[in-house]
């Protein structure tokens, strides 16, 4: 469902002149004002707007930090301390940026699990979903390289461990590691490469986000019922004010959580060892990545073979791109799929469990548990989802989005409320 022909009419002579040469106002109006959205969207759909806000915040704070950062192994750590102690509000900018990365991943994980729960990856939204997986990969690369820049102990050893993983790849592994290092060990050329890429990748993310939004506006938004829009007048409401107000409220609530971390727990999601300057001669007792990498780190360590672990780690992300074809059910939303709904929550618990195990030492029961959860993770996508579409009996779907909304409100507030909802757009979905 595209946004259709714009009904935007410029009011001033200048805007008429400008619009006839570059119809920017019409594009904004058709995409973010008059654009029809399903009337039953809940607050889980606000995380798209939250992620857009966080991307802008990360780029702005990152540009400011670059003005004071020095990408050299003998100066990087001290330049970060200079930002914290000597630059006006430098501590605030740095904490906004470092905690912003964690908040970015919190939002993106909720956004992805919401898409899996409501089947937002199913046709005709396959390209939209794949673009989202590409954004996720770019985010992970950007966050990893950014974690190296403070050049503390965990930065240095994290870079050493992760870049060494590529050496497991046959034929191309060693050249890739040499290129990443810029030599034969993690040193100044490595830091310069990571600094350059960390600055570049957010703008690449912004470009793919533009494609993501474009694809969304072509096929239209999914909704909690998973039923496509049949009657634009009954099933949808204009993006503005209904969706913009809901998105704005969601962003404010999310920013309150963000502010709590920035002002009260700024180092809670970091690692204390990163406040120690990098020392190639002293290995930390336990090398761990940032929390948002921990599930994949647990998968990596659960495989006894180095190459197998690397393939499993990247396969855990790659399998998400094939989700539209692995899920064989014709019903999108888990609301109408009782067995899938239970398996979905099992997957959520498994993912959280892998995150916990990724932070634990790779020994004893932790390794056994990691292997069991890793096995289930892949079984969920490669075995259970394809079979489930053949054996599951979904509940009856509503005839339309409007019917689902009216039925819900009729049950909650009686037929009078349901009749009133026909004439007045409902924003609570």
UniProtKB/TrEMBL annotation:
This is Cytochrome b. The main subunits of complex b-c1 are: cytochrome b, cytochrome c1 and the Rieske protein. The keyword Secreted does not apply. A ubiquinone binds at residue 217. Component of the ubiquinol-cytochrome c reductase complex (complex III or cytochrome b-c1 complex), which is a respiratory chain that generates an electrochemical potential coupled to ATP synthesis. GO terms for molecular function: metal ion binding; oxidoreductase activity; quinol-cytochrome-c reductase activity. It comes from Chelatococcus asaccharovorans. It comes from the Bacteria. The keyword Iron applies.
């Amino acid at each position: 469902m595209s946004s259709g022909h714009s009904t935007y009419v410029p009011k001033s002579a200048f805007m008429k002149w400008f619009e006839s040469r570059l119809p920017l106002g019409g594009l904004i109006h058709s995409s973010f004002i008059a654009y029809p959205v399903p009337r039953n969207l809940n607050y889980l759909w606000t995380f798209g707007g939250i992620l857009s806000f966080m991307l802008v915040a990360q780029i702005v704070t990152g540009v400011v930090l670059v003005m004071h950062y020095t990408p050299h192994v003998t100066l990087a750590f001290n330049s970060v301390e200079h930002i914290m102690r000597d630059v006006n509000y430098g501590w605030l900018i740095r904490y906004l940026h470092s905690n912003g990365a964690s908040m970015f991943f919190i939002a993106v994980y909720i956004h992805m699990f919401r898409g899996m729960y409501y089947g937002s990856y199913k046709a005709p939204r396959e390209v939209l979903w794949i673009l989202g997986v590409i954004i996720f990969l770019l985010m992970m690369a950007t966050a990893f390289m950014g974690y190296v820049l403070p050049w503390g102990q965990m930065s240095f050893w994290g870079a050493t461990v992760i870049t060494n993983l590529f050496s497991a790849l046959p034929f191309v592994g060693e050249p890739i590691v040499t290129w990443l290092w810029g030599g034969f060990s993690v040193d100044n050329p490595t830091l310069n490469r990571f600094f350059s890429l960390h600055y570049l990748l957010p703008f690449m993310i912004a470009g793919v986000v533009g494609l993501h939004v474009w694809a969304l506006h072509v096929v239209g938004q999914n909704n909690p019922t998973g039923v496509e829009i049949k009657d634009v007048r009954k099933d949808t409401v204009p993006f503005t004010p209904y969706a913009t107000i809901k998105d704005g409220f969601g962003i404010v609530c999310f920013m309150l959580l963000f502010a709590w971390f920035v002002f009260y727990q700024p180092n809670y999601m970091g690692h204390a060892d990163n406040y120690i300057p990098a020392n190639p001669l002293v290995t930390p007792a336990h090398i761990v990545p940032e929390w948002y990498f921990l599930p994949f780190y647990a998968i990596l360590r659960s495989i006894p073979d180095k190459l197998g672990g690397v393939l499993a780690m990247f396969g855990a992300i790659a399998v998400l791109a094939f989700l539209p074809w692995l899920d064989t059910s014709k019903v999108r939303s888990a609301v109408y799929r009782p067995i899938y709904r239970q398996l979905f929550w099992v997957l959520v618990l498994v993912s959280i469990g892998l995150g916990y195990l990724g932070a634990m030492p790779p020994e004893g029961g932790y390794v056994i548990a990691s292997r069991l959860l890793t096995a289930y993770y892949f079984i969920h996508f490669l075995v259970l989802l394809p079979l489930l579409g053949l054996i599951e009996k979904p509940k009856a779907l509503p005839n339309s989005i409007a019917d689902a909304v009216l039925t819900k409100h009729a049950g909650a507030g009686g037929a009078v409320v349901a009749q009133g909802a026909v004439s007045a757009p409902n924003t609570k979905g």
